[in-house]
Give the backbone structure.
Amino acid sequence: EAGVAQSPRYKIIEKRQSVAFWCNPISGHATLYWYQQILGQGPKLLIQFQNNGVVDDSQLPKDRFSAERLKGVDSTLKIQPAKLEDSAVYLCASSLAPSTSPYEQYFGPGTRLTVT
Amino acid sequence: AQTVTQSQPEMSVQEAETVTLSCTYDTSESNYYLFWYKQPPSRQMILVIRQEAYKQQNATENRFSVNFQKAAKSFSLKISDSQLGDTAMYFCAYSGSARQLTFGSGTQLTVLP
């Protein structure tokens, strides 16, 4: 079974530029999450999707961050314009639908973003 | 809101010895899961072990076991026969009815040869 795929693995941009990250969850996983992990900290949830609908985006900085999950499969996370404090690892995770899952999430390898 | 606290930023252990990582959490929910994740330098978050709150028996996975004290809201990880490959950042995480993970700040474990 293929795991969660993410691209790119690394990205370096200048502040005020835009950037997009892509995630492909495990086949059949209805729930998809984006996390932000700042160096030295634990991951923090940005947004949670159930199929192609948003369940929770309360911690997403909506003035600069946006995310979508078209057709309930792949997802993209965009930052525009980027700030220095956005430098972090962006992790994507997926899980089965809530009624069938033991709450377990599977993570992708992450994208390391550096904003200069 | 749920919180997860890991009070040990760094720990080290000699190869083949046993080490225990501590975690406490706070919640008002009665049904939830607790996890320990391992994150090596590759950044891949790997599930080590999970514990269901309604199960009194402590979970065990090979060399990894937990001590789950529900009343005290404590969830520690014991690694037996430590190996060099166990060197990584370890995160304690909580998942409740919202199916979202709340992570602690992590413990960097170094296994010394």
